DNA sequence: TATATATGTGAGTAATCACTTGCAAATATA
DNA sequence: TATATTTGCAAGTGATTACTCACATATATA
């Protein structure tokens, strides 16, 4: 057994989650069979269903922890008291994603194309915080500026996760200069 | 038989392509079985393989015509002689996508997450044209500006295709004002 | 008209799918 | 220690998968 935050989880259950995440993120949920997950995880296929009931239950379990990771990242921005810090940290956000967490984000971005899992409201707190920041800084259209910066954030994240973003630092500086932060 | 541009295509072949496009775009390639395509198209399953050899051949055939549609849209921008027109038309681009062609674009955007079908070079001509335009207008960092506008274009397209973009016109005006076009 | 080719069907195929079941071993609790 | 519960596996299940094949009909060409 191993301690995850404060919940105990068996090693094999963890291995299933880890293998499923990797396969779901890189090959797609539908293209990943439960037998393949079991094989990669080194467990019997039946164990997947013992722990997660069905394939969807496994996916939901992964999505849950992925959303936790997303909220952790947003939390830091939401608690900022300084308008410029909010914008600065939003620009930094996509460049801070750890390689070890790429699969979590890949899966989330991919699933946004599945109606069932696309929830644009998840960005709402960040949009509101940015709107406040742009208002504070006397931008003409604060909410549209917020919308635009979120779009930029999503595009940058997408490019990074797909592995085609060569001039990351240069572009980050460019953006910070644009917003004077 | 029916005439498509200058190539003859049987009605049933067309129906297969149409049904497959709809299903691939909305439910995903892996989640769409050839039997379901045949059922929706009102043909025998075997006919799919007669015309396209295998499922991948069918997908490739759809992708080909999707890329043609994309190139048609880009072509108009690439031939512009005026820098401001280039930027203006790029901003207009995502808002010009016809509802009847949503499925083509949905499929293209979804497939960008599959390594095999992700080809960032496809945007290169547009990036270069925009870089030229921003240089012409004396922007400090033309190529980064181009990269940024393309990102905005991709984000807007994505939001429109996912159906969560309520303030389209307002946002379009906002962008045009930002770039003074 | 005769014949070759293209278009179409329906009934197959083996492989794989998500999932179940019966039973054993490990662990927690009394 | 005795017993209940959890964790685990191997061998299944029927349904569905992408794809093939034999055969028929429609169309193009000689």
Salient structural properties:
two-stranded antiparallel ribbon, elongated, DNA-binding, Arc Repressor Mutant, subunit A, 3% strand, homodimer, 181 residues, disordered N terminus, mainly alpha, 2 domains
Oligomer: homodimer
| Class inferred from helices and paired strands of chain A | mainly alpha
Q: How far do the termini of chain A sit from each other?
A: 46 Å
The spatial strand order of the largest sheet of chain A comes to: 1-2
- Our Rg estimate of chain A from Cα atoms comes to 19 Å
Q: Which protein chains are joined by the largest interface, and how many residues does each one contribute?
A: A-B, 29 and 29 residues
Count of helical stretches of chain A: 9
Strand content of chain A: under 5%
Mean pLDDT of chain A: 94
Describe this structure in words.
Two copies of one chain form a homodimer. Chain A has 181 residues and is mainly alpha-helical. Chain A folds into two domains: 1-53, Arc Repressor Mutant, subunit A (Orthogonal Bundle), CATH 1.10.10.60; 63-181. Chain A has helices at 11-27, 34-41, 45-52, 55-78, 83-92, 102-111, 124-136, 142-162, 168-178, and strands at 2-4, 7-9. The first copy, chain A, has a two-stranded antiparallel sheet with strand order 1-2. The first copy, chain A, is elongated, with a radius of gyration of 19 Å. Residues 1-7 of chain A have low confidence and may be disordered. The interface between A and B is medium-sized, with 29 and 29 residues. The first copy, chain A, binds a DNA duplex (30 and 30 nucleotides) through helix 3.
């Amino acid at each position: 057994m191993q301690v995850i935050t404060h919940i105990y989880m068996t090693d094999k259950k963890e291995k299933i989650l880890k293998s499923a995440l990797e396969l779901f993120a890189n090959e797609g949920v539908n293209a990943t069979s439960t037998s393949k997950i079991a094989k990669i995880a080194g467990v019997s296929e039946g164990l997947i269903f013992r722990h997660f009931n069905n394939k969807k239950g496994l996916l939901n379990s992964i999505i849950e922890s992925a959303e936790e990771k997303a909220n952790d990242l947003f939390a830091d921005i939401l608690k900022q008291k300084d308008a410029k810090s909010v914008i600065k940290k939003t620009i930094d956000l996509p460049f801070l994603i750890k390689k070890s967490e790429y699969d979590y984000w890949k899966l989330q971005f991919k699933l946004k194309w599945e109606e069932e899992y696309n929830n644009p409201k998840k960005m709402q707190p960040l949009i509101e915080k940015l709107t406040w920041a742009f208002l504070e800084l006397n931008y003409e259209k604060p909410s549209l500026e917020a919308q635009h910066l979120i779009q930029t954030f999503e595009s940058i994240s997408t490019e990074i996760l797909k592995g085609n973003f060569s001039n990351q630092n240069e572009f980050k500086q460019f953006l910070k200069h644009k917003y004077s932060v």
